[in-house]
Structure formats: structure tokens, C-alpha cells
Write a structure and sequence with these properties.
This is RNase H type-1 domain-containing protein. Keywords: Coiled coil. One of its GO terms (molecular function) is nucleic acid binding. The chain has about 625 residues and is α+β, with helices and mostly antiparallel strands. It folds into five domains: about 90 residues, no CATH class; about 60 residues, no CATH class; about 180 residues, 2-Layer Sandwich (Nucleotidyltransferase, domain 5); about 130 residues, no CATH class; about 80 residues, no CATH class. Helix content is about 40%, strand content about 10%. The strands form five sheets. Strands 6-5-4-7-8 form a five-stranded mixed sheet, sandwiched between helices. α18 crosses α20 and α20 runs parallel beside α21. The longest helix has about 50 residues.
């Protein structure tokens, strides 16, 4: 209602509304009018409305009472309220440091349950029950023990260890293992919790820049737009992309045998005008509409061809609505306003045409040219979604080095990404083992340090390593001339591969087989025996463990000596104080310099990573020193 009023109001009324809504530091009895009431309600969420209409919220989002989309305002307010709920119950036992609850995901799963089970699950979610252990706090006659066994009654006991529920646990062993290994909050409060990185991802997408359109030397007949979305069912981790393509060719200029070969057409016959990820909320509908809006903002007044019925409906809504504020309840209101400015203020035509997606193409079809363009736009959008500036949430192409079992007794090192990751013992050992096997090979050294970007032609190292350059099939103009180059190293029967740029398009799906991925080259031992560097790796591991043990032993001895020195110093101080009490007129002599040894913290961080047992030993040493 406030948005509707502000849309119709003049500038003076808006300023007055913002001023009254921003004054929320008053008692509820002093609140007068809807503006102050809105400010009070926002204050319950920890929000504040400024004099310009912007909303100061605790999340990463930047909201505005008028210009932001209504669904974004509602989602953000719901998230803020769930954070408030989590904080209000965080003082209960087993609920301390409760993470924010993902209400939408929890309600989605709850709605799938049978109505007979929703009652019991709802009681668990609302914690609408009491255990015997809780009842015993106010009822002296109540026993704390379980009514089915002699153990103390608690939620953990009922779910994970009570004999009365053993039959249920036997049907869900994986769930029981999860509850035993993770925090007890999942047992006490069975809801879905929000990923702590979701808000950071949303902030990145909110400020994601829009692309600069490629200048054209010709005026095309039409623009072809399409969108693509990764993980569309996962609203928190999905991301959407779009692409705009055009061409100066006609249908008769295109080879008949290539009409359904979208990558070839994109590479040879079409121009990519713009390709990027969606700015703001990530979904396929917004991707489709954003591509159309950017194409119209070129102000060429040529048709936009799309396969989205939502885009067609959005254009119709804009053309039939003279006042933009009447569109504020619709989704993607910010994009609709941009279309409204083009059509009603700048008096530009915004023509749009609908074409069916994923249809077979025949040169005799009346809409054959639109089908070809739509297929090429779909290909460009998919390539953009997969390979262009992947968000931090994408982990499928993360750089890694793994030691894995391969085909029985064989061993392999999977290497992918631009350079080896750091921080894991096994990764550093693998790097050292590869260096040991290849000696002073220049190619391997540059590969491991990430300096080798592209090699023109080929070469051969001292150890027999050969490097070749090849270009995978299926690349197009989006990837650039050098991003598709690959360097392949050969050392006997062992193959190390480093891909520069992106993965191959023809191998999109990645499946795990025996711990390795199908589309990643592996160091293969053709003789059936482990490679020469594998024993060296374990030898290096033993040396590291021995060195770590010796350093810990020396550290313990040093700390014990310091403890003895501190004890002697305290004993001397007590003797001096006793002497002062017995002989008040005498001046005590200062303690010897030998007892003024400063305490120096051992360089624990400079040591190699320790095992859990070693770390526990170190913690016990620190505890004894503190005592």
C-alpha cells in the first residue's frame, strides 16, 4: 500500500512520507499515520527508511521502498524476520549460535509430507513438546529417565539411541550417521538452515555489471535473444545468463547442412552483440527479459525474436500501461520500468516476436530464419552460463590435485585448473613428487608454478617431456582466439594435461568413476605398477611426520623448563615477601637475573600441518603452561 501511495504522490508528499517514516524512535502510543507505522514495522526487522526512500538493512542488499522489486522486498523481509527468530531462541540449550533458518526451503519440504505426518513434524519444528528431563525441573515426582529404558530422556536419546525407536533408525541409516556426525542442532530443530555464503553471492549478483554491446557496422533485420539457467530448481545457488546475437546474412546465405549446427553458425555466421550473467535475482525469466531490454535500449527499433512467452506478456503489459507505478506489483519491475521509459517517454517502438524453441529446421518453413537464430542464441546463452566468469558457487572446475586409486593397484594424479592449490599436505607432496620424477624439466616447473599460459608450436625437455598445442573442437567467437589452447605433457606412459581457459564443450557432464572423472586426463601407469614417484611421496610424508614429532618434543621440553623457571621465580618472590613481613626495616634484594627469562612462543605456525593427535598434544602442553 505504501508503494502504491508513493507511486501516485507528488514530490512534496513523498518527502513528507519519508521524513515521518524515518522518525521511528518514538513509543507505539505516539505513532500517527501509516508512514510512522511503516517505520515501526521496519524497525522490528532491524531496518530503517532514510529520507530518500532507501532502506538500510543488515544484509548485503540495497533496497528502495519504491524502486526495488516487490518480490525482493518480501524475500528480504522474510529473511530478516527469520534471523530475528533465530536470535530470539538462541539462548536456549542446544540452540546457541543458531544459524538463520531457510523458511522457504523448509516449507517446501514440509508441504510434500503426508497430512498425517505434518502434525508430528510440526510439533518438532515448533518444539511443542517436553522431555522427562525437562519436566523434572518443575515436577518433583517426575523421573528424568526414559519410560522405555533407564537412560536419561532427551531429544538425542529418543532419536539416536532409544531401543523403542531402533526399528525406525534401521530404515534410515544414512540419516542417523549424518545426525551423529554433525551438530546436535539438526536433531533438536529439524529445519533447513541457510547457507552462510548465500548473502554474499546475492550481493555479487546484485552489483554484477551489465555488458557493453559490441558496435555493429550494419543494421540487422532482427535481434535473437535467449537465456539459460544453471540449477534452476535451487533458488539459492542458481545463476542465469543471457545472450543477444544477430547476423547480416539471410537464410539462403547459410549452408543447408549447417542449419542445425548452432556452434558452427555462431562461430562463422552470427555476431554476439552481448553476453553476460543476470544482474539481480537469478532466474530464467529475468534472463530472457533482460536480454530483450538491452536489445531494445540500442534504439534501433527492430524486432526482438524470443522463445519466452513471459517476455511477450511483459511487452504487452508495458504497452498497455501509461503509468509505470501501476506495474510495481509485477516481477522484474526494474526491467519493466526501463521498457516503459523507452516506449512512453522516448516514444520508441519495442517490437517483439515469438518463436517456438527447439524445433526441427527446414528451409521450406516460413519461420526457418527465426528458428535458426533462436537456436544460435540458445547456444550462446548456454556457453555464457557455463564458461563466462563462473560465480564462486561453481565448484565443478575447481583447481585440485588428488591422489587416488585407479584401476586396482594403479595410482593416478588428477591435475586440472590453472595451477595447483595450496594448503593441503597431500597436494604439496604430489607437487614435490612430480618435480622429483621430472628432474629439472622446464615445462613441468612452469606448469606447476602456473607460468605456462600458451606454447606456440612444441618443444622437448631434458627429461623427455614433450609439449604440444592443440585446439579443441566446438569453440566459437565467445571464447577468443587463445583461450581454447591446451598444453599436453608426455613423460613415457604418464600423461599430465593442463587445460588453458575453459573445459571442452563436448564433455559437459562429469561423472565419477573410481574416484576419478571421465573427462580429466590421468597419470596412467601402463606397466601395471605404481609410478616411481609414489614411494618417494610416502617417504617425504614420513620425514615430515618425524620432523614434526621432533619439533613438538623440543617444544615440550622448552615449555617444561620455562615452567620450572616460573615456579622457582614464584618461590623466590614468596620468600622475599615473607622476609619483608618478618623484617620490615630491611630492603629486599632484587631477584637474580637468571629468573628474568622472557617467555618466547614457539613458532607453531611455521611448522608443517599436524595430525589431530599431534594437535591435541600441543593443546595439552599449552593448557599445562597456562595452569
Amino acid at each position: 500500500e505504501a508503494r502504491t501511495f508513493l507511486g501516485e504522490a507528488d514530490a512534496d508528499s513523498r518527502r513528507l512520507f519519508y521524513r515521518m517514516a524515518s522518525t521511528n524512535r518514538v513509543r507505539y502510543s505516539q505513532i500517527v499515520g501509516p508512514a510512522m507505522a511503516l517505520g515501526a514495522y521496519l524497525a522490528k526487522l532491524g531496518w530503517k527508511l532514510t529520507m530518500t526512500g532507501a532502506i538500510e538493512c543488515q544484509q548485503f542488499h540495497h533496497l528502495h521502498i519504491v524502486h526495488s522489486n516487490q518480490d525482493e522486498l518480501l524475500d528480504s523481509s522474510e529473511a530478516a524476520w527469520m534471523t530475528h527468530v533465530s536470535m530470539s531462541i538462541a539462548n536456549r540449550k542446544h540452540l546457541r549460535n543458531l544459524p538463520p533458518i531457510d523458511r522457504q526451503a523448509t516449507c517446501s519440504i514440509f508441504s510434500r509430507l503426508h497430512h498425517n505426518k505434518q502434525r508430528s513434524v510440526g510439533l518438532d519444528i515448533c518444539i511443542g513438546y517436553m522431555t522427562n528431563q525437562q519436566k523434572a525441573h518443575f515436577d518433583e515426582l517426575q523421573s528424568e529417565k526414559c519410560q522405555y529404558c533407564d537412560a536419561h530422556d532427551s531429544v538425542e536419546h529418543r532419536v539416536l539411541s532409544c531401543p523403542a525407536t531402533a526399528a525406525v533408525r534401521s530404515s534410515y541409516p544414512e540419516v542417523c550417521d549424518f545426525l551423529e556426525q554433525h551438530d546436535m542442532i539438526h536433531t533438536v530443530l529439524p529445519v533447513l538452515y541457510k547457507d552462510p555464503e548465500v548473502e554474499a553471492y546475492a550481493a555479487v549478483f546484485e552489483t554484477f555489471p551489465e555488458p557493453d554491446c559490441t558496435p555493429l557496422t550494419y543494421k540487422p533485420v532482427c535481434f535473437f535473444t535467449d537465456g539459460s539457467c544453471h540449477l534452476p530448481q535451487d533458488r539459492t545457488h542458481c545463476w542465469a545468463s543471457y545472450a543477444i546475437v544477430c547476423t547480416h546474412h539471410q537464410l539462403h546465405d547459410l549452408p543447408v547442412d549447417k542449419l542445425e549446427d548452432a556452434p558452427w553458425l555462431l562461430h562463422n555466421c552470427f555476431d554476439t552483440l552481448a553476453a553476460s550473467h543476470v544482474t539481480g535475482k537469478q532466474n530464467i525469466a529475468r534472463a530472457e527479459l533482460m536480454a530483450a531490454v538491452i536489445a531494445h535500449e540500442l534504439e534501433l527499433e527492430i524486432p526482438v525474436v524470443t522463445d519466452s512467452q513471459y517476455v511477450i506478456s511483459a511487452h504487452a503489459a508495458v504497452e498497455n500501461t501509461p503509468h509505470s507505478w501501476k506495474l510495481h506489483k509485477k516481477k522484474n519491475y526494474d526491467l519493466l520500468k526501463r521498457l516503459h521509459v523507452l516506449h512512453w517517454e522516448k516514444r520508441r517502438d519495442i517490437p517483439v516476436r515469438k518463436v517456438r524453441a527447439h524445433q526441427s529446421i527446414s528451409p521450406q518453413d516460413a519461420d526457418a530464419f527465426e528458428k535458426v537464430g533462436n537456436r544460435v542464441a540458445d547456444c550462446a546463452a548456454n556457453l555464457t552460463q557455463k564458461y563466462l566468469a563462473k560465480p564462486a558457487a561453481a565448484e565443478d572446475n575447481r583447481s585440485r590435485i588428488e591422489i587416488s586409486a585407479y584401476s586396482g593397484n594403479w595410482a593416478g594424479v588428477v591435475m586440472s585448473g590453472k595451477q595447483p592449490p595450496e594448503g593441503l599436505i597431500v597436494n604439496r607432496l604430489a607437487v614435490e613428487a612430480v618435480k622429483e620424477a621430472h628432474g629439472n624439466c622446464r615445462w613441468i616447473d612452469e606448469w606447476l608454478t602456473g607460468k605456462l599460459i600458451a606454447v606456440k608450436g612444441g618443444g622437448k625437455g631434458k627429461c623427455g617431456c614433450k609439449v604440444t598445442v592443440r585446439k579443441p573442437k566446438g569453440w566459437n567467437l565467445l571464447d577468443g582466439p587463445e583461450s581454447a589452447e591446451s598444453c599436453t605433457f608426455a613423460h613415457g606412459a604418464n600423461y599430465l594435461r593442463r587445460t588453458i581457459g575453459f573445459a571442452k564443450p563436448e564433455k559437459e557432464e562429469k561423472t565419477e568413476i573410481n574416484g576419478l572423472q571421465e573427462n580429466v586426463d590421468v597419470v596412467d601407469v601402463a606397466t601395471g605398477t605404481p609410478p616411481a614417484w609414489l614411494p618417494k611421496m610416502f617417504e617425504l610424508e614420513m620425514l615430515r611426520q618425524q620432523e614434526s614429532t621432533l619439533q613438538l618434543q623440543q617444544m615440550i621440553q622448552d615449555q617444561q623448563q620455562q615452567i620450572e623457571i616460573l615456579k622457582n621465580q614464584l618461590l623466590l618472590q614468596e620468600q622475599v615477601q615473607l622476609k619483608m613481613v618478618m623484617n620490615p626495616g630491611t630492603n629486599p634484594s632484587p631477584p637474580p637475573a637468571a629468573y628474568k627469562v622472557p617467555y618466547v612462543q614457539p613458532p607453531i605456525q611455521a611448522m608443517s600441518p599436524m595430525s589431530p593427535a599431534t594437535a591435541a598434544t600441543t593443546m595439552s602442553c599449552d593448557l599445562r603452561l597456562s595452569l
